[in-house]
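Design request, tokens follow.
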């Protein structure tokens, strides 16, 4: 037992001695000495891994000398590179780098970067990391979102209402492709009161960080507007005024063709302006605010236009893929069919399920 204890103590003592012998040091302008293992020097800072405080990052301007017991690759302002250990004088006034070419006097202030021998340079590591980010961003990410809501009452008045929307989005760092289909149906006392459907395809391609171009096709049917089919084909450009994590503001402006066919036999077509505003604001972790405005006036007769507003709050539920969406949608037609209102308002509360792959 005594021999075993002596063996353990001897091993621990050897470990401590070896660790002490093979330790790097950083000397700073305030007279401090930080002991540990130098991870790297890059972009004006030096990182050292210490036993007591973990990894510390020090500004290069605060360093007067470094000491490395194990060989390091050091790059200087001149572009030259040396490989070897580094020792400093007792007064830290000078440093000597022991290389295969012999001992050379070096100045820590002229060091641009440094890293342990045998490892890749910080520049190469950064280039590889950036390339990996680009590669991952270029992989298409598919998101399927299903949004449903409805109500049913039974009593003096029997009502039934159902609404839903399906979005399938393919997104990369360069473009976004969106397929969507939505509809609304309702009955009052078993008489149909709403029956409308909308679907389409929209494609956006990024020109640069802020600018983009887009094209879209939308088809719409509304029984109670006497609308058999409304088709809009448009192309244009867009700009991100705000583009970051908590918020996003984007405008789109283009031109298109709108064609409408009614069950009365009437049909008309016109060239239109295609304008849209999309806004998103993340409210910490508890909600998200979204707003969309779409405006399409006739180019020849601007008093003939359509407007569509959709404003909502989205609340995450217990699971990330489930959300509650509460909002209001307003549709305005400046020239509706005879006997119909110009403005159509819908207040809704829907359950949203999102699935992501890729």
């Amino acid at each position: 037992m005594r021999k075993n204890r002596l063996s353990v103590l001897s091993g621990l003592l050897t470990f401590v001695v070896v660790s002490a012998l093979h330790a790097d040091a950083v000397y700073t302008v305030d007279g401090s000495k930080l002991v540990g293992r130098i991870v790297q020097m890059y972009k004006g800072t030096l990182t050292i891994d210490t036993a007591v405080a973990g990894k510390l990052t020090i500004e290069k301007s605060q360093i007067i000398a470094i000491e490395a017991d194990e060989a390091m690759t050091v790059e200087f302002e001149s572009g030259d590179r040396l490989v070897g250990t580094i020792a400093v004088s007792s007064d830290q006034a000078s440093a000597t780098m022991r290389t295969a070419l012999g001992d050379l006097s070096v100045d820590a202030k002229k060091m641009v970067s440094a890293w342990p021998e045998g490892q890749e340079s910080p520049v190469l590591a950064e280039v590889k990391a950036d390339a990996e980010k680009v590669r991952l961003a270029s992989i298409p990410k598919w998101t399927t979102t299903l949004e449903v809501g409805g109500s049913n009452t039974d009593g003096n008045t029997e009502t039934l209402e159902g609404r839903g929307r399906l979005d399938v989005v393919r997104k990369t760092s360069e473009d976004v492709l969106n397929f969507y289909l939505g509809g609304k149906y309702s009955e009052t006392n078993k008489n149909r009161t709403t029956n409308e459907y909308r679907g389409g395809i929209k494609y956006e391609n990024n020109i640069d960080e802020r600018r983009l171009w887009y094209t879209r096709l939308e088809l719409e049917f509304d029984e109670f507007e006497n609308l058999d089919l409304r088709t809009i084909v448009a192309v244009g450009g867009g700009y991100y005024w705000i583009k970051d994590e908590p918020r996003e503001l984007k405008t789109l402006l283009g031109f298109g063709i709108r064609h409408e066919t009614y069950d009365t036999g009437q049909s008309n077509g016109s060239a239109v302006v295609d304008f849209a505003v999309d806004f998103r604001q993340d409210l910490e972790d508890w909600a998200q605010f979204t707003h969309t405005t779409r405006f399409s006036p006739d180019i020849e007769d601007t008093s003939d236009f359509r407007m569509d507003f959709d404003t909502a709050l989205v609340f995450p539920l217990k699971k990330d893929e489930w959300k509650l969406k509460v909002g209001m949608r307003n549709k305005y037609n400046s020239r509706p069919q005879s006997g119909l209102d110009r403005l159509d308002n819908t207040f809704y509360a829907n359950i949203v399920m999102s699935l992501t792959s890729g």
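Comment from the thread starter after seeing the answer: thanks! Helices lie at 2-21, 122-138.
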